[in-house]
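Hi P.,

Sorry for the delay on this. The queue was packed all week, but I finally got your sequence through. Input first:
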Amino acid sequence: MQKLPKLVRFLITHAVTGFVLAFVAVQCLILWDVDQLGKLLSGAENGGLAQVILTFFLGLTFASVQMGAAVMLLAERPVPPNRGRFIERMRRWMAPPSSLGLKGAVNPKP
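Then the structure:
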């Protein structure tokens, strides 16, 4: 079996991240009973199916946003040091590793 190309693995990783975030978001909506969603799903005959459908479509949305943001950051120039630590951490987390050999890739901190 052949190993997937680095860019494909990069996109799949970000898509999975989006789906995980969507799963967590749906579970929080149900757990905290936002607008009585948890009560509605637990009382419905097909509440489990509704939860799966909600998670899937929210996952598609979150995965698309995550992949789009990651692709947009591929060619970003290095952040000036005065922009703050949070932005620098997010940029390093979302940017591809330098092992991909792409322009604008980030070297991890030693």
